[in-house]
């Protein structure tokens, strides 16, 4: 298309084709289909929409936890409320309170699949396009287009979100918006975007060490005066964003116990370090090497502390490297200012 003078058509056609592929993948089967009593992640997401539109926010994290109790942060719940409201306008039976559990009619599945594609197009795709333009701005337009194509058709995300049924692209899109903001110097906007990413899915914590290190490193680079000013602004913006996200679960709107109930669901340490169906390091090694559950029977808190210690030990070297790099860069670029300080 570049050779034929059709450069302007690459992006719209790439986005349209990726949307068609995502929709086509959604026509297939999915985990939990026709498998009572829980029906898989598809039913979990549908059930959260049902809860969100029928219950007050103060009940979202406490109602019938044995049947897909809500365990994602508030932004997921707010989006579930919006999707549930829209779906109920089309057909109220899709989200009838407690009566719609396990519903798998053709039209309900069509609506649920369309919400994944729609949110992907609204959040992830624009962030991805901006990412290729901002982070590859010194590269040719052809390279930018190639990068966009590669990222749009990333197989893992296609299978997990549009095959298995999840909304990971929303979290990833908000994280990309944060990175894009940092790249153009809009650090406060980037902080808000990353809080929204965390507020959508706690899995965004994977990126927190590097983003926190970057922002702290920039404060170090700017020096005591400007750096302290930026640090205070970031702290205020970040804290305010979290408070707004959790406002329905905080006093005076709700008792403090409502907030703690939400936190205990979002970070469910009471369930143990891992569940057998979750594919992480602890689950894998429990099956193949060491029976962690038996070894720490009755001492689960120790296993959680061990996991936390290993996690911190894993990312601390990179954090120190980023901070030291920021300080060295300041030494090179502002040697006289640093010596006076």
TrEMBL record:
Keywords: Endoplasmic reticulum, Glycosyltransferase, Membrane, Signal, Transferase, Transmembrane, Transmembrane helix
Record carries keyword Glycosyltransferase: yes
Main location: endoplasmic reticulum
Enzyme Commission code: 2.4.1.-
Enzyme class: transferase
Recorded GO MF terms: dolichyl pyrophosphate Man9GlcNAc2 alpha-1,3-glucosyltransferase activity
UniProt key word Calcium: no
Bilayer disposition of the protein: Multi-pass membrane protein
Signal peptide range in chain numbering: 1-21
A single Gene Ontology CC term: endoplasmic reticulum membrane
InterPro entries: Glyco_trans_ALG6/ALG8
Pathways per UniProt: Protein modification; protein glycosylation
Transmembrane intervals: 110-131, 143-162, 174-198, 204-223, 230-250, 303-324
Subcellular location: Endoplasmic reticulum membrane
Protein family (similarity comment): Belongs to the ALG6/ALG8 glucosyltransferase family.
This protein's name: Alpha-1,3-glucosyltransferase
Organism: Pisolithus tinctorius Marx 270
């Amino acid at each position: 298309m570049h050779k034929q003078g059709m450069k302007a058509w690459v992006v719209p056609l790439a986005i349209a084709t990726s949307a068609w592929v995502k929709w086509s993948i959604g026509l297939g089967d999915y985990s939990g289909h026709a498998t009572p009593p829980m029906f898989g992640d598809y039913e979990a997401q549908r059930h959260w929409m049902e809860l969100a539109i029928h219950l007050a926010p103060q009940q979202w994290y406490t109602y019938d936890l044995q049947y897909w109790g809500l365990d994602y942060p508030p932004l997921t719940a707010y989006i579930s409320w919006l999707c549930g409201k829209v779906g109920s306008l089309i057909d109220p039976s899709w989200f009838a309170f407690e009566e719609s559990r396990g519903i798998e009619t053709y039209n309900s599945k069509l609506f649920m699949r369309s919400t994944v594609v729609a949110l992907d197009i609204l959040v992830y795709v624009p962030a991805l396009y901006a990412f290729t333009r901002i982070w590859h701005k010194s590269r040719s337009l052809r390279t930018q287009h190639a990068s966009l194509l590669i990222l749009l058709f990333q197989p893992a995300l296609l299978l997990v979100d549009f095959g298995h049924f999840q909304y990971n692209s929303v979290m990833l899109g908000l994280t990309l918006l944060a990175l894009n903001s940092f790249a153009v110097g809009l650090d406060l906007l980037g902080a808000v975007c990353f809080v929204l990413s965390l507020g959508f899915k706690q899995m965004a914590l994977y990126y927190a060490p590097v983003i926190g290190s970057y922002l702290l490193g920039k404060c170090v680079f700017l020096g005591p005066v400007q750096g302290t000013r930026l640090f205070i602004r970031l702290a205020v913006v970040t804290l305010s964003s979290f408070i707004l996200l959790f406002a329905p679960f905080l006093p005076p709107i709700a008792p403090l116990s409502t907030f703690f109930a939400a936190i205990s669901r979002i970070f469910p340490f009471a369930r143990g370090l891992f569940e057998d169906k979750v594919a992480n390091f602890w689950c894998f090694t429990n099956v193949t090497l060491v029976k962690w559950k038996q070894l720490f029977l009755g001492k689960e808190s120790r296993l959680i502390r061990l996991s936390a210690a290993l996690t911190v030990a894993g990312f601390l070297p990179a954090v120190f490297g980023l901070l030291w790099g920021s300080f060295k860069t300041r030494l090179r670029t502002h040697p006289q200012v640093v010596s006076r300080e």
